[in-house]
């Protein structure tokens, strides 16, 4: 036998056996590809996006369910306050309630069947209790006593008419109560608001801005009360409501500097009026009062001061009169603002302040509402007192 042929046959058979086993070997399963990873050997997909796009998409997906960022707070809506004309008439009922004791007491005493010396003394005491002042009370009683004697009979209508005439005469309705806001020579009218602590100067400044805006005036507010940051914040709130810009500086800054900058802003803006809110100060403190005089002098380097409005609390009575005297000596007060008149039966302070200082009451506060500051009208005031009785 040819061993060569046998060897070749055996080699061929072995080759077939091992080769077939290799060819039919089961294929090892391939691990799934990671997201974004192309399997080895696979052709790139025609629709595959760059990695940057995938990151952007992932970021978009991550924020899709997130709550949107809070929008910045909206600016307060600018209000249009009512005009000053007729304000006191609209607030007449509130004034009548507060002065009910005053008016009712006087009318009931004057309507008594018999008016002897004791009766007239009681009438005078009622007037003094209402802060009319001793001199004015004596004058009113003397005039009434003469007229009652002449008339003889006293019907309720006659008594009311007599008392109305006397009270009006003491209030001096002919005084000029105009708040000067016309400006002059291209510069705004400047109004300083002064007074002791707690009388409501900052609130009065804000309400006065509303009165002027309601009358069609443009206003700039100066936060010259630099001792209290809260005062400037409060003034900004008032200004924002009527669209009046506020000039302020850091707490502790020079009040005169703030006032000067406010007037400068008013000139630059072409405003009709600049209202300067000053810090409260004790009328007995000479240094503080001198500082108030400095504020006025510095303002006058830029523009004249048209109004110095002294804010008095109507409930303080005689103390309010003492305050008025000192302030008038330092800054030449041109008008009085009486606050809290709705909460007291002592409206006679109006008569006494005007008599002692020769300065008219120009504005009265009759509540805590934003539009409860009204130009003072003597006739409406007296009628409110007597209608309440």
Automatic annotation (TrEMBL):
Where do Low complexity bias regions lie? Answer: 57-69
> Topologically, how does it sit relative to the membrane?
Peripheral membrane protein
Its annotated compartments are: Cell membrane; Cytoplasm
Mind telling me which residue stretches traverse the membrane in this protein? 6-24
**Record bears the keyword Membrane:** yes
Q: Specify which residues bind GTP according to the UniProt entry for this protein.
A: 195-202, 277-281, 339-342
Q: What is this enzyme's catalytic activity, as reactions?
A: GTP + H2O = GDP + phosphate + H(+)
For this UniProt entry, the molecular function terms from Gene Ontology, in alphabetical order, are: GTP binding; GTPase activity; signal recognition particle binding
Entry's EC annotation = 3.6.5.4
The Gene Ontology biological process terms listed for this entry are: SRP-dependent cotranslational protein targeting to membrane
Q: Which GO terms describe its cellular component?
A: cytoplasm; plasma membrane
Ordered alphabetically, the record's keywords are: Cell membrane, Cytoplasm, GTP-binding, Hydrolase, Membrane, Nucleotide-binding, Receptor, Transmembrane, Transmembrane helix
Which family does the entry's similarity section mention? Belongs to the GTP-binding SRP family. FtsY subfamily.
Concerning PANTHER family, the annotation shows: SIGNAL RECOGNITION PARTICLE RECEPTOR SUBUNIT ALPHA
Subunit comment: Part of the signal recognition particle protein translocation system, which is composed of SRP and FtsY.
Task: State what this protein does.
Answer: Involved in targeting and insertion of nascent membrane proteins into the cytoplasmic membrane. Acts as a receptor for the complex formed by the signal recognition particle (SRP) and the ribosome-nascent chain (RNC).
Name of this chain's protein: Signal recognition particle receptor FtsY
Species in which this protein is naturally found? Murinocardiopsis flavida
């Amino acid at each position: 036998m040819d061993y060569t042929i046998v060897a070749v046959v055996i080699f061929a058979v072995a080759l077939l056996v091992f080769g077939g086993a290799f060819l039919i070997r089961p294929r090892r399963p391939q691990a799934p590809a990671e997201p974004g990873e192309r399997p080895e050997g696979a052709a790139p997909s025609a629709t595959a996006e760059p990695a940057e796009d995938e990151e952007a998409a992932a970021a978009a997906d991550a924020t899709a369910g997130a709550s949107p960022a809070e929008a910045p707070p909206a600016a307060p809506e600018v209000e249009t306050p009512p005009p000053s004309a007729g304000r006191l008439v609209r607030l007449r009922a509130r004034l009548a309630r507060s002065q009910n004791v005053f008016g009712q007491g006087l009318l009931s005493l004057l309507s008594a069947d018999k008016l002897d010396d004791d009766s007239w003394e009681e009438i005078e005491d009622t007037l003094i209790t209402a802060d009319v002042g001793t001199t004015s009370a004596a004058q009113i009683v003397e005039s009434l006593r003469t007229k009652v004697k002449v008339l003889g009979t006293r019907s309720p209508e006659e008594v009311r008419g007599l008392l109305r005439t006397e009270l009006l005469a003491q209030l001096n309705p002919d005084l000029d109560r105009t708040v000067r806001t016309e400006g002059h020579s291209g510069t705004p009218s400047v109004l300083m608001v002064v007074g002791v602590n707690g009388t409501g100067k900052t609130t009065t400044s804000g309400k006065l801005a509303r009165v002027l805006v309601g009358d069609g005036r443009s206003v700039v507010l100066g936060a010259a009360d630099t001792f209290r940051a809260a005062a400037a914040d409060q003034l900004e709130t008032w200004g924002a409501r009527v669209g009046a810009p506020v000039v302020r500086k850091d707490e502790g800054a020079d009040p005169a500097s703030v006032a000067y900058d406010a007037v400068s802003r008013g000139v630059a803006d072409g405003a009709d009026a600049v209202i300067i809110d000053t810090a409260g100060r004790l009328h007995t403190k000479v240094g503080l009062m001198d500082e108030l005089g400095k504020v006025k002098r510095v303002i006058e380097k830029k523009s004249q001061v048209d109004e110095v409005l002294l804010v008095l609390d109507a409930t303080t009575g005689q103390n309010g009169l003492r305050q008025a005297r000192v302030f008038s000596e330092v800054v030449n007060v041109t008008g009085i603002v009486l606050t809290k008149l709705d909460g007291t039966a002592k409206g006679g302070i109006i008569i006494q302040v005007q008599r002692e200082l020769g300065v008219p009451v120009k504005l009265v506060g009759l509540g805590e509402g934003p539009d409860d500051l009204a130009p003072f009208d003597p006739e409406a005031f007296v009628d409110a007192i007597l209608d309440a009785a």
